[in-house]
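Please check both lines for our workbook:

___
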Amino acid sequence: MGIQQCQGCNKKLDWFSIVKSIWLGYKPIKCSGCGKQYVIDFKTRYKTTFSMIIPLFLFGIILRNTMTLSTGFMIGALFLFGSLITFILPFFIRYSLDPLKKQ
């Protein structure tokens, strides 16, 4: 596992660009070396979404049942945990070259 490399120039795709792409609804990203555009396919979108939702759901249930926390603190803890998951995802997500974009 690791951050994906560009298929054209073998430069690693930018971690921040991948995180930004996730937060902005899986926007396409460009290689900073050669400018090739990468998109995330439909199947990977589902895997990514479920790898964020299921742990958040389980963490929320565990947090609710084991501790008596205020609603604001619980929302903050869930947001923090969700952010942590998002920051780890670029090491597992795989993008593919955009078939509609002329390279």
The mean pLDDT is 85.
